[in-house]
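Structure ticket #2291
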Amino acid sequence: MKDAKSTIEAGKAILGIEFGSTRIKAVLIDQENKPIAQGSHTWENQLVDGLWTYSIEAIWAGVQDCYADLRLNVKNQYGIEIENLAAIGISAMMHGYMAFNDKEEILVPFRTWRNTNTGKAAAELSELFVYNIPLRWSISHLYQAILNKEEHVKDITFFTTLAGYVHWQITGEKVLGIGDASGMLPIDPETKNYSAEMIEKFDKLVAPYGYSWKLTDILPKVLLAGENAGCLTEEGAKRLDVSGHLKAGVPVCPPEGDAGTGMVATNAVKQRTGNVSAGTSSFSMIVLEKDLSKPYEMIDMVTTPDGSLVAMVHCNNCTSDLNAWVNLFKEYQELMGMPVDMDEIFGKLYNHALTGDADCGGLISYNYFSGEPVTGLTEGRPLFVRTASDKFNLANFMRAHLYASVGVLKIGNDILFNEEKIKVDRITGHGGLFRTKGVGQRVLAAAINSPISVMETAGEGGAWGIALLGSYLVNNDKKQSLADFLDEKVFAGNAGVEVSPTAEDVAGFNAYIENYKACLPVEEAAVKYKK
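Resolution: structure written out below.
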């Protein structure tokens, strides 16, 4: 504690802030890259005019409350104020669309990754680029707005992601880390910049609309991890810390997306490594040795924060439906007058699930709070399906929901491992699904038939990951690669606890997923008829 206090007092602590889907989290780390304080703020997206969004007011109120919570944590632990910092990093959920005019006013409400209204744009761009362009990518949102003949498009002078927006507002720099940038528009692995060929194709495609801008004019500049991305301005310091204690001039690392910070937080930026993030949404990231043989609609090509090619399987839904069912058991306990401990409820139910049948006794769950592009649904309805002859008991019920949380992820990864024959040395899991020790790990290992490691630091998540990128910016004395810096300075040989799949679990999950795919028309019907 004494060391942590002196680190903060000397202005040598590093701050990472990540805007997640349900929580904004701040983590302060010391010179050894270990967390020494944290703060958080809970928030929710809103459905406005049929599109998922967070308001500009919610963004700033949220980050200010999160920072105030961090200040309080520092005050309570160490009895001091945060006056200065060695570095800051901003991270956020990737993709989406934030467009601004020349007065820096947002032109339409922030359109998040969760929106699936961009089907026509994504399909046309995928064909034009001969490259899979997902629905949630920024370029899909921009082109859909053009196809919709939205009035605001002619006034765009800059468009970016949430991380890029917050970074711009606190530093004045219109830049983006390469990992986050790769969710705006495809990156050329040779130039480590947006694909010049695709920019040219896009400009030709939209030329008939007569806009005054070209795509390059309105995109943020691409930066690699460790490159100079500006410093905290006076105004930026006030926007983070309304108490006025935080001083300007702090170096800020390139802003990154939650995929990039997840890779950093799990030491998975080296080729032949991978990670799976499983929370409100889920995604797997496998760092490739070479490009895939062809584009796949289910697989997005992004990059690590230092520019290596990554095959990403992104699923819009993961633990939301699982959590909703667990909350029913919480309600039951409250109804019965029993004391409620959510960690205990999760722990008991998750562990009990492992005693169920490996194929869940025939039970199926669809956790689709929103649409799921991998399975071709633009909308979703949470759905539990069984026949009268299935083995309906609590263990199978919970196991079916755990399987559902990574079911779509399995469908995408089966392409990588079975068709593309990708080789990996290590896959690391992180996020809420892995909080109950060993359970989410075992389920994921069965799903993708690969050993899964979880580190003790897995719970630190993306805010810690972006803080580590801040550390890489200012503490990389040896000018090491990001992978070497993480190996030597941060993880020092810690590969976590590994769980290997059992043949029975793999066979059971395979049987479950065949059932799951066969019953997708039931989910489609639920979307069609349940309004």
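Closing remark: The chain has 18 helices and 22 strands.
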